[in-house]
Amino acid sequence: MKKLSFCLLLFFSSLNAGPKILCVVAHPDDETMFAATVYSITHHLNGIVDVVMITNGEGGYKYSTLAEPYYNLKLTNEEVGRANLPRIRKQEALNGGKIMGVRHYYFFNEKDHRYTQDENEVFQGVWDIQSIERKLENLLKCQQYDAVFTMLPTPQTHGHHKAATLIALNVINQLPPSERPVILAASVSDSDNPPLQFLELEGHPLTKMVRPTPIASFDKMQSFGFKDRLNYQIIVNWVIAEHKSQGTMQLFMNKGDKENFYFFAINNTDRIEWVDKIFQQLAKDYTDHVSKLDFQARRRPEFLSDMVGAEAAQLE
Ligand SMILES: [Zn+2]
Fold it and tell me: Helix-strand-coil percent breakdown of the chain, rounded to 5?
């Protein structure tokens, strides 16, 4: 009888469960690309969002000028920056995660060696690709995510961003079809910068999309609250503000009205309907839920920090 009650409990809790998402990104701060969507999934749909960060972010020292007095460290000095930024940027990511409602961060601690647009560099000995793929595969198999969010691998973006997306595509493509999460790529747009047309990154057929335009969008500017003066751009700005060591990231505040998601052709096209449904739910007015006060009780910030080491170790 006890066993039956437990099964019924699991059944009913799974009925209420929201989407389960894994974000796979290269650097601490890349997740700001979909911060509003993540916030809405965790706060309004009762969803779960975890984040994999492939690098330790040590290469982001050049624009740390304004963070030097804040952290009392000469971070723009390469030696000081590379020694201290991994620790600082993890904490900045965790602070942003508290705002977005992220459950776990998985820090893979690969070297953030330098800025390059060449996605192939990190595959030539800079990153331990086998280790990354093994950890990611384990995570996907254990956690059975519904979807994976990545950055749109445009030719102009950082080679690390493209490589992170390529690794996620490669790992998912090798899973049995029934175990594959749907994989999407994100970019932001506004009226001056319409959604990018992207069909495929040359030389990487796994990056092919079903169509060159986004399949779904989250409107950061949808307004709510007293006199309708609030919107989700505020949340994105909060998250950006946590990344104080990244000077130029701060310039992205108030940029982009929409977070757009593109659908890779390796996905089963049956999943388009699921994506549509999720984004229709996200577009609803959640004014009442935004101010729901039980949220922080469910997601304690120390939970995030505690899980980082233990969870990451299990993946080795
Ligand atoms: Zn980045």
Answer: 50, 15, 35
